[in-house]
Amino acid sequence: MAKKQYNVGLIGYQFMGKAHSNAYRQVNRFFDLPAEIHMHTICGRNEANVSKAAANFGWTNYATDWRAVVENPEIDIIDVATPGNTHAEIAIAAAKAGKAVWCEKPIGNTLQEAKDMLDAVQANGVHHAVFHNYRKAPAVSLAKKMIEEGLLGEIHHFRGVYLQDWIADPNFPLVWRLQKEVAGSGTHGDIAAHIIDSARFLCGELSEVCGLLHTFVKQRPIAGEIDDKMGATASDKMGDVTVDDASMFLARFKSGALGVFEASRFAVGRKNKNSFEINGSRGSIVYNQERMNELEYYSNDDPKDLSGFRVIQATEASHPYAGNYWPVAHIIGYEHTFINLVADALVSLHEGKAASPNFVDGYENQRILDAVERSSETRSWIRL
Amino acid sequence: MAKKQYNVGLIGYQFMGKAHSNAYRQVNRFFDLPAEIHMHTICGRNEANVSKAAANFGWTNYATDWRAVVENPEIDIIDVATPGNTHAEIAIAAAKAGKAVWCEKPIGNTLQEAKDMLDAVQANGVHHAVFHNYRKAPAVSLAKKMIEEGLLGEIHHFRGVYLQDWIADPNFPLVWRLQKEVAGSGTHGDIAAHIIDSARFLCGELSEVCGLLHTFVKQRPIAGEIDDKMGATASDKMGDVTVDDASMFLARFKSGALGVFEASRFAVGRKNKNSFEINGSRGSIVYNQERMNELEYYSNDDPKDLSGFRVIQATEASHPYAGNYWPVAHIIGYEHTFINLVADALVSLHEGKAASPNFVDGYENQRILDAVERSSETRSWIRL
Amino acid sequence: MAKKQYNVGLIGYQFMGKAHSNAYRQVNRFFDLPAEIHMHTICGRNEANVSKAAANFGWTNYATDWRAVVENPEIDIIDVATPGNTHAEIAIAAAKAGKAVWCEKPIGNTLQEAKDMLDAVQANGVHHAVFHNYRKAPAVSLAKKMIEEGLLGEIHHFRGVYLQDWIADPNFPLVWRLQKEVAGSGTHGDIAAHIIDSARFLCGELSEVCGLLHTFVKQRPIAGEIDDKMGATASDKMGDVTVDDASMFLARFKSGALGVFEASRFAVGRKNKNSFEINGSRGSIVYNQERMNELEYYSNDDPKDLSGFRVIQATEASHPYAGNYWPVAHIIGYEHTFINLVADALVSLHEGKAASPNFVDGYENQRILDAVERSSETRSWIRL
Amino acid sequence: MAKKQYNVGLIGYQFMGKAHSNAYRQVNRFFDLPAEIHMHTICGRNEANVSKAAANFGWTNYATDWRAVVENPEIDIIDVATPGNTHAEIAIAAAKAGKAVWCEKPIGNTLQEAKDMLDAVQANGVHHAVFHNYRKAPAVSLAKKMIEEGLLGEIHHFRGVYLQDWIADPNFPLVWRLQKEVAGSGTHGDIAAHIIDSARFLCGELSEVCGLLHTFVKQRPIAGEIDDKMGATASDKMGDVTVDDASMFLARFKSGALGVFEASRFAVGRKNKNSFEINGSRGSIVYNQERMNELEYYSNDDPKDLSGFRVIQATEASHPYAGNYWPVAHIIGYEHTFINLVADALVSLHEGKAASPNFVDGYENQRILDAVERSSETRSWIRL
Predict the structure, then answer these.
(1) Which of B146, B158, B210 is the best substitution to test chain D (most D C-beta atoms within 10 A)?
(2) Do D56 and C29 lie within an 8 Å CB cutoff?
(3) What is the pTM (predicted TM-score) of this model?
(4) pLDDT tens digits along B287-342
(5) Are β-strands A219-223 and A234-240 bridged in parallel, bridged antiparallel, or unpaired?
(6) What is this model's ipTM?
(7) A306 to chain C: nearest residue by CA?
(8) What is the pLDDT of residues A83-97, one digit of tens each?
(9) How many domains does chain D have?
(10) What are phi and psi of C268, to 5 degrees?
(11) What is the SS3 assignment for A118?
C-alpha cells in the first residue's frame, strides 16, 4: 500500500532553503518511514531566483506569494526558512490555515513574536517543529542517550562555545545578518541560540543568567547587494551595525549545574566551532560540530590507570540515525542533521505526536536569549 | 534550453549501489553542470530486492538481467557496482555495446581481467571511469593541487595505511569478501587498492615493490546468507578463508620517493582509517579519511619559530568541490566523494574527454596489486 | 672568577617545596647565568619530615623555625612555599630583614594581606618575585612574544579554563585546601589565579568582572591527617567545606577585549587542564598546560586556502628557554617552568632589576580574585 | 645507615653526556632507592670542554684519558656515551676491569662489535645495561604492563615510525652522524634502533625482516667543526654521505604478528616523532614520544556504542615511574626517561640482578639492524 504523502511548502530559498530542500529530497531515501515527503512548492519573492531554486533543489512548483502557498489546500506543511523578521507573520498565518508549521530558529525576532507564534500553533492545534538541527547529529543524540542512561551522573558543568570569524575583518560589509530590523539579533540569536539549545536538550532548563553582548565594529561598508553570508559585496558608504558581534554569559541550571556560554563571529581561525563540554559526576563528554561524527567521552567508571577521554566515532549502526547511512566511520556531514530532523518531524506529524524540538523549545530558547539581552543592558543576573 | 540527459544503468544495488545511486540523485542538485544524469535503470538478480532498491534509491526502472540493460539503446552509461568476479564480463559487454563504462574498483579480479577490460573500452572507443572516489574528497584534491604547485617540493616519502577491524573477531562469518573466487582478493584488493590510488594520484607511478600478504584467521564459520559486510550471519560450519587479512609492502616511486603501504582488517579500533602522510623537501601533508574535511599541512617556508602542522579545513568555497555544498566548516561526508566523482565523470563524458580516474588507473592499480601478490609469493622485490 | 652565590632559605617542603627545590638544584645546570644559587636551608615545622626533605632535595641545612631562617644573615633569598595563611607573616618579616622575597601564589589569603606584602617589599626595597610559573613555559613565553610583535593584531577574546577533578568524589576528605582559614579560597585562588595571570600577562589588565563562585559539595569527611592533595585520608566525621569548588566569571579588559574564565575541581576527566585561547584580528593561539610543549597558532596572513591552526612545538633552540634544555621535540615538563622562573628571578636579583612576575603581579591578581568574590556575593559587575 | 654509593665514570660529554649526567644528578632526588649514585668522573678528550662539562653537569672530577677512568679502582660503573666507533673498545676494557658497563645504543658500530661487547661483559661477569631510554617513559612501561596483563590479547600488528627532519636541507653539513666510520650507520642505527627496541620490548622477537636503506643526498658540505647535531657549521668543500638517510622494513614476529618499520631524517615537519601503534585482538595502543605523557588505548571490551581510542595521561601515581615525580597531568619530559632507566639499572646492580634492557637487548637489536642492512643489499628477506 502506498504511504501517505505530505506536501511541503517551503518559504525561503537561500542557505536554509537549500539545506531544508536537501533534507526533504533525501529523507525517504535513507529512512524507512511510515510516510513520505512530497516537495510541493518553494516560495520566494524574486521569481527568477525562486524558479531556478525550484529546478535546482527538485521542487515540483514554485511561487512568489507566500500567502498563496499558505492558503493552498494541497499543502500540509509550511516550512518557514526566511530571515527572522518574517517568521512570525508567516508562521501565524500558516497555523491559522491549519498547516503544520516547521520553522527555522530563532523562531521570532523578539520574545513577543515567539510567544505569539507558540500561542498560534497551540491555539490552532497544529503540528509544529523548530530547526534546531544540531540536536540531530548522531553524536549529540548519543550524548542525550548517555545522559538519560545516567552515564554522566549528576551534571556539574556545561560549557559551550560557538565561534566563527566571518566578520572579523572590519571591511566585511553590512549584510542583513548585521541589521537588527531584519536579523533580530546578531551572534546572539544566530549562533548562541544553538549553544542554548544544546544546553537545554542535554542539561535541562536554566534558572538564571548573567551576560554581556558586545559589538566590536560599529560601522561597516553598506553591502552592494543584500544577500546571504556568502554573496554580499561591499560599497563605499558606511552603515551602523545594529547587532552584537559577540555574546557571553554565565548561567545556573535548575538542576544545580553551572553553565558558561560564549558565541562570537570574531574568533579568527574558528570557522564553525559549535562545541560543548559537559562534566558530570560519573563522566564527561565533549562535542565539536566541526568533527560532528565524533563524541569524546570520559568515564569515571574506567580503571583509573586506563581512563582517558576516548573518541567515539558515532557512526555505528547502533548509534542514533547512523544506521540509515553508511558503514562505520564512513562519515556524514552537516546536511544530514537536517535529514534526521525532518525524519523525526515527519514521523511525529504522521503519528499525531508533538515534534521534538518544537515551538516550545523555540520559545524557551528565546526566553533565554531575551534574558541575556536584558542582563547585558541591566548589568545584573536575570531569573528565568 | 534543456540540458542533455545521460541515462544510467546501474548493475548492483548493495553498498556500492546505494552510494552510486545517491551520487546520481544529488549530482545535479549541488553542481551546475552542462549535462544531467537520469537514473534510468537499476539491475540485480533478485527481483524483490532490486525493485525495492529502485524505489528506495529513486530509479525509474529496475531489471534483473544485466545483459538486457547493457543492450538497451536508451542507456548511455553502464555503472558496474557488482562484486569483483562479474566486473569483466559486464564491462566488456557494455564496451562492445558502445556504452560509457563506469566501474567500481578494483576493476577486475585478476590483472588479466583488468587488461581485457582496458582493451575493451579502448578498442570500442567508449568513455570509461573507475570509482576511486577518495581522490575526490576536497582535502585530497587540495593535496593534489598543492603538490602540482610545488608546495611540497621534491617528494621523499609516502606512507599510507588503510586500517579496519571488522573481521578481527575470528567468529565473524565467511562472507563473500573473504572468498577469493568472488572477491578476487581480500584486504589487498579491497582497501590497499585505495592507498595505491592515493599514492599514484599524488606521487606518480611506482617502480618496484616488495610485500607480504597474510591471513591471520584461516577458517571461519560459513555465513548463513551471503550478504554484504553488514548483513552476514554465522553458522556452525567452517569454511576456508581464501583471501588475505592484511597486506603490507615497501615501494620505490619512479621519482625516487620511497613508499610504505599497509592495509588490514585486523586493526582493532580502526574503523575506516584510510590515511596517508607525504613528506617533501618544502613541506608535508597528512590526510585521514575519518576526518576527511581536514588536511594537515606543514610548510618549511614558515618562520622556523612559528612552524607546525596546521589543520586546513578543506571546506572553503575556494577549495576543490567544497563551494558546491555548504559554508565553510559545515562538513560533508563519505557520500560526497561519489557525487564529486560522478560530476567529473559526467562532464568529461559530455565534453568527449577522458575521465580521471579511468580504466588506465584501474589497470595500473591492479598491476601494482598483482606485483605485490607475486612479491609476497616469491619473497622478493618485483619491478613494475 | 667564581660567580656570586645567592643563598636561599626555603620555607615549606611539600608539593611546592619539592618543585622549588628542584628548580634551585637544576637552574645552574641548564642555564649559563651570571650568578649561582646555593641551596642553603629548607625549613618546616616537623623536624623528621624537613630533615628528610633536606636530604632528598639536596639542601645543605634544614630548620624548624622560619624566623631563624629569615634572620640568618647568610641567607639572601627567602622563598615562601607554605600554605597561604602563613605567607604574609613570613614574607613581611623577610622583607623587613632585607631579604629578597620569592613567594608562591596567591601571595596572600586576602587582598589586604597581599597589599601589606606588596607594601612591605616596596617599603624595604627588597627584590620580590611570585611563582606564577606557567608564564615560563616556553610556549606561553612564545605567545607573549608573538603578541608583542603584533602577530595576533588587536585582541578580541581571551577564554581560559583551569579544570581538575580531584575532589569530584563527594567522599574525598576535607583537606587543608578546602578550608578557608588555611587556604584562603578554593578553586578560585588556587587555579583561577593561574588563568588570571595568563590573561594579565598576555592581554593586559582587566577593567571589570562579573562572576560566580559555587560549592557543589558542602560537607566532606574530615581528613585523618591534614596533608597535601595527595596524602589525605578520610575519616567518619564530617566537616564544612568553606571554600568554592568552582569559579567562573566574565570580564572586560582595558584594551576592549572580552574575557571568559572558568575554574573547577569538578571537571571529571580533566586532570590539570590549564588552557586558554586568544583571538585577535590577525591570528589566534591556543595553549593547554597538559601539552605544554605545544602552542597552537592560526595566522590570518596565511593564504586562505592553506590556513589552519598549526601546532608549534615550542622546543626549538630559538624558542624562549627551550635552547637550554634538549634538541627540538625532546620535550620538557612541569618542573621546568619553575627552573625558568628561578633563572629569570636570579638574573633580575643579580642585576638589581625588578623580577617578572613580582608582587605587583601577585597583588593585581589578587585584586581580581577579590573583585570576583565580591561580584559573586553582590551578583553584579565590579569595576577594577 | 648510609646507603651504598656507586661511583660513575662517564665517558662522553656531548648530548648524551648531558642527558646521562642529569639522570645521575636527579635519580636519588626523585626515587627512594636502596643505593646512591655518586657522580665521580666525567671524561672527554678536550680538557677545556670536559672541565666545563664537569662543572656544568655536577661531576666531582674530570679526566681526558678514558683508560685511566676505566682503571680507576674507585669507579664502579663505566657509562659509555661516546660516538659509536669507540663503544666497543671502551666497554670491553671496562668489562675486563670488572666495572659495570652501561652503554648508549647501538652498543657497537657493527654486529661483530656488539657480539664482542656482549661476550666481554658475560665473560667477565659484570653488570651491563644499554640506554634504550624510551622504554622507560611511563606510557611505554604502561603499555608493556597492559600487554603482559593481556589487555591487548593476541598481537597482530606493530607499526612504528621514527621521523625527524634535521638533514632534509641538502646544505646541512656532513656532521659525524653522517659518516659511517664514526657513526656506524645513519638513520637506521640512530633511530630505527629505537623503534626496534620498542617492538622487541612490547611484542617480542622478530623472526624475519625485509628492508631498504636509502640515501637521498649523497654529498654534503664538509662541516667546519665536527660537533653534535646542533653545533655543526658548513664549509664550501663537499664530502660523501656514507650512511643512510632513511630506513624502512617489513617484519614478522615469532608470535605471528606483522611489523612495519620506518625511520627517516627527511620527514619535513616531524621533529622527533618516535611513534608506534600496536593492534591486538582485544585492543590497540598508540604512542608518540612527542606527547610522551600520553598513551592512546582502544579496548574491544568497551560497549560497542561507547568505544573509541582514549588518551590515557600516564601521569597517575599508580602509573610506572610517574608517582616519583609530580601530581597527575603535571607532565615530565625527555630527560626523565634517562632518570627512570638509571634508577632501574642502579637497583639491579645493587641487587645483583640483570638490568633491563642490557647488552643482550643491545646485541639482539643490532642483529636486526644488521639483518635489515643485509636485506637491503640482497633485496631479499633475511631470517633472524
Answers:
(1) B210
(2) yes
(3) 0.96
(4) 999 999 999 999 999 999 999 999 999 999 999 999 999 999 999 999 999 999 99
(5) antiparallel
(6) 0.95
(7) C269
(8) 888 999 999 999 999
(9) 2
(10) -55, 125
(11) helix
